[in-house]
């Protein structure tokens, strides 16, 4: 009997994913699913939220055939995948670099931005329930890094007594294998989710003539158990951990000689959370989070002698207490916490510690049924930089049952990172040096005493601390949902000041420059985002997404106004002056990005066809005419289309087969787009029990 | 609350309005009566570099003669990316040519042809102990060095107004650092060959 009960429960669980018969119910379920916790740290309905927020459901992820986080984020409107050092991909939101988006895993932050960008392919999507994306500054809740947005990856959690699981295997081009196993159960008080993933790929090579591949072969595995224990209705415990290990080949050629090595990543995330409901109104959450991100890499020459070895070892330890008080229809959320962060790495003279304390308060106020006002602030006190107060105000107004308007204004900041403060790097081949702001003065004096300094740049001192980069973010948008139509719009504006960049602080007697980090630039980004969804009928759903974006540097505009910016004519070699119209904006920003998605179901065949087409307009990655800005006379990366296709067929006993192709038409641009591998076909077999 | 919306929409409107770039009026270029000359492929070799001590003779140039000179009557001198003026004191580098003149240089950011009036006297600099009138290093003086392509490219709109060794004036702009001034230099281009255009003025005390 037990078996059949389990079977029954499994069927219920699987219905929204695999059954076609109960179409009406599944629409209801979809609506229920649109609950967001990232925006307010309490469960909130998506449509009434005053912030630009979106959700990617497990169902949507599985229909695309994506296996890693970067692949699924790439397909969302307004999230632009940007390649960074070493094949790492980051996400640009509202025109801001990947370093300015906070990535959360079940509400706690991932660390390990060794060069600024967090590698999103670290995260397997096999056990994800949904991904929540909140755009715009959210420092009022999350502090540093939540400047452009917050992406919260939420894992599956059983809600009713059940035992279910799945195994899947996917083979794709470039000898890419992805194997998943996931067990999820609940038996009265104890429930859990155990997930394992093994991924291996042979990488790819866009330029066959070189010895190095564009992306070298790597393999990784993820093990992620999570246990829930309900002492009572009012006292619940969550213990979760995640272990990730990756090994990648490391190859390079220096002056004709081959070097080979390996680079290894080890990552641990431990989360312990106790939820205590005092009564109907008051709830406490006690959370302890610890994470460690560690890399080691080495290069040997052909005689197996070590050329270089690098390491990076970052720890974050964060206890936090949150309190939620609900009264009438209003919610007051508050929290206090401590961040204790350490980093030891190559090119640091010592182990560095960051300590900060913070407190936040948020009031979610519903004066009438039509109005929702969300306001709050967070205060971060830090031992390395000026304390930050991050306020926020957001308003949602329901015009009718299907249309609401939303607007928000908020402050966001990103603290100077370890590298910007403590880097101690001298290039051994050429001889230039980069010093972090906090160590630069001392290192300069040392070099001065050794008579290695030719001169110092005038007017540079390190007396006042490096300031955090900060932004003011505005959003105004609307949410329309009626019948088969859903239409979301948002207009955004971000003014960012104190952007940190490198500047020459001195010149060495060998003629090379010494750099350090300073608050230099002020930039702004503005644009508009549009998402239109239409369920044509029960079998056909289409959606259209579009983002318009302008991102510019204020000082460049000023320089152009002051008639200080020139370019060189490639043919006559003569210089000419640029005007404001010639300035294109920041690097790596496209004015237009768009996507079209189609999901077609053939009920008779239990088959769905999912086609997605993406467009990105031209953008610049280099200043080809040598005036330090991107202008219309520079060479641009041409605009392009990408098409992803996946076809999923379900068989009786919860077996599904998926075939598809990412980058169906095999578009590549080897010189300019390193993260486009060419067509990748795949086949996946999934078994649920 | 309606006022907040109003303010925000006014703001949005304001933003969209201010973002529309206004056209700058086209500049009327005044024709210079003096002849613009171009000197091609001034070869300025150096030894060392890449961490080794830099050396080698400087290649000396005279604006009035429009030629490389070996005498002391030079105005500017080149070695690799380093440029000296025939004025001021010894910098203290190897193979430094003897400075007998009163040359100095003022750096102006403008289109070459637009520079008519001489800059203020106070903006003219000479070489000194450990300092260069035309600063060395990428983006400091006349060029930008791109570590990815390993190319040295002259900064656009950098014009050097030179008071010559004997007190006359010249202005010059470096067009290329590579042999035969290719329009798109690449890895195969041969460096340390300066091509520059200049105007020499021996008549006026105030303008070109």
Q: Strands, helices and their partners?
A:
The complex is a heterodimer of chains A (689) and B (208).
Chain A: H1 2-18, H2 23-33, E1 35-36, E2 44-45, E3 53-57, H3 58-64, H4 69-74, E4 79-83, E5 89-93, E6 101-105, E7 108-109, E8 128-135, H5 139-142, E9 149-155, E10 162-172, E11 176-187, E12 190-201, E13 218-230, E14 235-254, E15 257-277, E16 282-300, E17 306-327, E18 330-345, E19 352-365, E20 371-382, E21 388-398, E22 403-414, H6 418-422, E23 424-426, E24 433-435, H7 437-449, E25 453-456, E26 469-482, E27 485-508, E28 513-537, E29 540-553, H8 554-561, E30 566-568, E31 575-577, E32 592-602, E33 607-616, E34 640-651, E35 655-662, E36 680-688
Chain B: H1 2-18, E1 37-43, E2 47-49, E3 52-55, E4 59-62, E5 67-69, E6 76-79, E7 82-85, E8 104-109, E9 143-146, E10 151-154, E11 158-163, E12 169-178, E13 191-201
Short description:
The complex is a heterodimer of chains A (689) and B (208). Chain A contains 8 helices and 36 strands. With 689 residues, chain A is mainly β.
Tell me what the structure shows.
Chain A has 689 residues and is mainly beta. Chain A has 8 helices and 36 strands. Chain A has a 22-stranded antiparallel β-barrel. In chain A, strand 11 and strand 12 form a beta hairpin. Chain B has 208 residues and is mainly beta. Chain B has one domain. Helices cover 8% and strands 34% of the residues of chain B. Chain B contains 1 helix and 13 strands; from the N terminus they run αβββββββββββββ. Chain B has a 5-stranded antiparallel beta sheet with strand order 1-13-12-11-8, with no helix packed on it. In chain B, strand 4 (59-62) and strand 5 (67-69) form a beta hairpin. The interface between A and B is large, with 44 and 46 residues.
Oligomer designation: heterodimer
The low-pLDDT segments of chain A are: 1-31
CATH superfamily of the largest domain in chain A: TonB-dependent receptor, beta-barrel domain
Radius of gyration of chain B: 22 Å
What is the percentage of strand-forming residues of chain B? 25-35%
* Tally of structural domains of chain A: 2
Major β-sheet annotation of chain B = 5 strands, antiparallel
Characterize the biggest β-sheet of chain A.
22 strands, antiparallel, barrel
